[in-house]
Amino acid sequence: MNEEFIHKWESQVKKGILELVVLNILNNRDYYGYELIEEIRNYTLIEIAEGTLYPLLIRLKESNLVISEWVEQDSGIPRKYYSITLDGKKTLKELNIYWENLTRSIQKITTR
Amino acid sequence: MNKINFKSDSAQRYYNEYINRVEKSISALSAADRNEMMMEINSHIFEGISRETGINELENLVEVTRRLGLPEEFLKPLVARKKLDQAVKSFNPKHVFQAIALNLKNSALYTVFALLYLFLLTFVGLVLSKIFFPTHTGLFIGNGSFRALGYVSETNGLTEVLGYWFIPISIIAAFLFYALITVLLKVSRKT
């Protein structure tokens, strides 16, 4: 078994599907950054350097798939809440269809 | 940004140092982008330490920042992309050069861009050279054929044919190289 190969492959797959995971989580309700990371940890086995999530959220924002808003807290440290846009919902629908087709075809190959 | 206050000096020092590293990693971004990211990371640290159950503040903080990662690493893709956006939108050579250095991992492509940049700077330099050394700078013909374009120290037997037209022509050439670099940067980003 080539562990180095597996590690590289896993990290590429993770990178690719993280946007899909984030959009699916935000499709249910609004989250602030830290909470979103906790939810990713709860639902998936994806282990990421948590800091990488923020550049990804900025990218989603620049693509108009999510919007964000700072909400003041009693602590004096505000939270930035992210929510999915209408365009984000439509895009996510297409991504989910693509993902389902992809996993179905891979299953066909692996169980041949 | 409201900084987080710790009871322990060691935790405060560790926090200040981490925040400084974040600040340094994004120093190339605009003030608005910098502020946004600083507040985001600060909020993450605050939420993280309030959930940690370690034996003291420092231990909690170390755990939260360990999971966040090294600022120099996780913020690099963001800075590289923002710099590229800035470079293709503006005509600021500083941004273009920074974008090239941050974005091009492929050394062959990097060399091509470096050469194009060198040509651009050469034409800018030649404009200055024409102003200070007018008889030694220009397009030189000798015995009816092309001999040199640029600066020559020995002009015996050579005739400079462009005169002061050399200046606008050099400026146009520099601009064309700049446009070419900008277009290639856009193309390289899409591929």
Overview in brief:
The complex is a heterodimer of chains A (112) and B (191). With 112 residues, chain A is an alpha+beta fold.
Record keyword descriptors for this entry.
heterodimer; A: 112 residues; alpha+beta; Arc Repressor Mutant, subunit A; 3-stranded antiparallel β-sheet; 4 helices; B: 191 residues; 2 domains; 8 helices; 3 strands; 8% strand; rod-shaped
Structural class of chain A: alpha+beta
Secondary-structure element string of chain B: HHHHHHHEEEH
Arithmetic mean of pLDDT of chain B: 87
CA distance, first residue to last residue of chain A: 22 Å
What topology, given as strand order, has the largest sheet of chain B? 2-1-3
Structural Rg of chain A = 16 Å
Name the helicity range of chain A: 55-70%
Largest interface: A-B, 19 and 23 residues
Classify the oligomer.
Answer: heterodimer
The overall number of domains of chain A is 1
**Considering the protein shown, what is the CATH homologous superfamily of chain A?**
Winged helix-like DNA-binding domain superfamily/Winged helix DNA-binding domain
Describe the SSE topology.
The complex is a heterodimer of chains A (112) and B (191).
Chain A: H1 3-26, E1 31-32, H2 33-43, H3 53-62, E2 66-71, E3 79-84, H4 86-110
Antiparallel strand pairs in A: 1-3, 2-3
Chain B: H1 9-25, H2 31-51, H3 57-68, H4 71-74, H5 76-89, H6 93-103, H7 107-132, E1 137-142, E2 145-151, E3 159-160, H8 166-190
Antiparallel strand pairs in B: 1-2, 1-3
Helix pairs in contact in B: 1-3, 5-6, 7-8
